[in-house]
Design a protein that fits this description.
single chain, alpha/beta, 2 domains, 27% strand, globular
């Protein structure tokens, strides 16, 4: 049974449809990416999953039950727009949010101090939120979402405003939570992070799902797109190979675009071996960034011509 399931979920604002018949499921303990360009409807979708908004149509089920307000106690949410009280200290903020989620005063305090240490924020507890940088506020908002050990964690652009060092801190903590069984949904524009983290994805454009599945399944659907060769000596032999679409060429390496899949790659490798010694030959699938751009452009073009 899926831990989270959406069926035909639709949300409208007047005549504008932010989400149109969205259906997908998330298995327990998986890390699930919600992707899409700006204005695609990602934040609206996450707000319905956390029950901040209610769908106009469709059903959301949480752990086998229709999503109810009581389930918010078992969900952690980091919104894109931060929701901390600027004139309160970090400790007072986190203690308050912990108590809202059912923790005692003492337990909320103890968990706050432990999480501040884990997030490399020791000594921040007496700082007022208004004194914090954007990245520091992001850490505090994240801690507020996990103090109560939620089985479902929803992150909307969790890496926004973080420097590379703190991105690594977040990535490590997210990996630890997932290893501990937490189911995690997150939205991001950074495709490299999706490829590094996600088990499954859904790609939304203009309120509709245009691609979904496990990361492995999605990439396999787009096939082999590029052949990368590393070779000894000069690359002059490339000029003697017929009909190559070269993406990038350097002194001892080349990337060649493929439209004929693995069979074309095999023919190019065989021809190259007649002229040079190959150190590496690798067939490369498209990156998730390439899939993202291609799918969004294709669906937008289809809408224009429809």
């Amino acid at each position: 049974m899926a831990f989270l399931e959406l069926e035909g979920v639709t949300k409208r604002y007047g005549t504008y449809c932010a989400n149109d018949g969205i259906s997908f499921s998330v298995e327990r303990g998986r890390l699930f990416g919600v992707l899409g360009p700006n204005g695609a409807g990602k934040t609206t979708l996450l707000r319905m999953i956390t029950r901040i908004l209610l769908p106009d149509e469709g059903t959301i089920r949480f752990d086998g039950e229709p999503l109810r307000i009581e389930h918010q106690q078992r969900i952690g949410y980091v919104p894109e727009e931060r929701g901390l009280y600027k004139n309160l200290t970090v400790l007072d903020n986190l203690r308050y949010f912990g108590q809202l989620k059912g923790l005692s005063y003492a337990d909320a305090t103890a968990r706050t101090l432990r999480w501040l240490d884990r997030m490399e924020a020791h000594g921040w507890e007496k700082k007022k939120v208004r004194e914090l940088s954007k990245g520091m506020s992001q850490k505090v908002q994240f801690i507020a979402s996990v103090l109560h050990d939620p089985p479902l964690l929803v992150l909307d652009e969790p890496f926004s405003g973080l420097d590379p060092i703190n991105v690594e801190v977040f990535l490590d903590v997210i990996a630890e939570l997932r290893a501990g069984g937490t189911t995690i949904l997150f939205s991001t524009h950074v495709m490299e992070q999706v490829e590094q983290l996600c088990d499954d994805i859904v790609l939304i454009n203009r309120g509709r799902i245009v691609e979904s599945g496990s990361l492995r399944q999605v990439k396999a659907r787009y096939g082999i797109r590029r052949l990368e060769l590393e070779f000894e000596g000069s690359g002059d032999f490339l000029d003697r190979l017929p009909q190559l679409s070269i993406v990038e060429r350097r002194d001892h390496s080349v990337a060649i675009a493929l439209d004929g899949g693995i069979e074309q790659a095999q023919r190019i490798i065989a021809a190259a071996l007649e002229h040079t010694m190959l150190r590496r030959a690798e067939c490369v699938e498209p990156t998730l960034r390439e899939i993202f751009i291609e799918t969004v452009r294709r669906t937008q073009s289809e809408e224009v011509t429809a």
